[in-house]
Amino acid sequence: MCTYLTEKFALEGSGKGARGWFRLTEGTVYVDHPVHAPYGHTVNIDFRNPALGASARVALELTEEDALALADAIHAAVKSAPAGLASRDQ
């Protein structure tokens, strides 16, 4: 079942693709059929820079368990570092 529910957010960062590193400006999270993962549905996370074309994309296809584990790991890593260490205002 496709939900067609998509969460988009602006971001500042870098990603590495087949042609090397590039600036990231947008993130998207949605639950849908994967392109490559061997499951019926996955949590799909795309990090992109639309201004650079279709190849400026880093894609993840995760089970919901792994997506939640990733979210927990991100929260734990940020909480364990000094506040503001990785902030835009550093």
Would you kindly provide a brief summary of this structure?
With 90 residues, the protein is α+β, with helices and mostly antiparallel strands. It has one helix and four strands.
Description:
The chain has a domain at 6-63. Helix content is 19%, strand content 42%. 9% of the residues are buried. By secondary structure, the protein is α+β, with helices and mostly antiparallel strands. The mean pLDDT is 94.
SS element count, helices: 1
The SSE string, one letter per element, is EEEEH
The major β-sheet equals:
4 strands, antiparallel
* Strands, count: 4
Describe the global form: globular
Please give the alpha-carbon distance between the first and last residues.
43 Å
Structural class: alpha+beta
Strand percentage lies at 35-45%
User: Which blocks of ≥5 consecutive residues have pLDDT under 50?
Assistant: none
Spatial order of strands in the largest sheet:
1-2-3-4
Map the helices and strands.
Elements: E1 6-17, E2 20-32, E3 42-48, E4 57-62, H1 64-80
Antiparallel strand pairs: 1-2, 2-3, 3-4
Provide keyphrases for this structure:
single chain; about 90 residues; alpha+beta; 1 helix; 4 strands; DUF6295
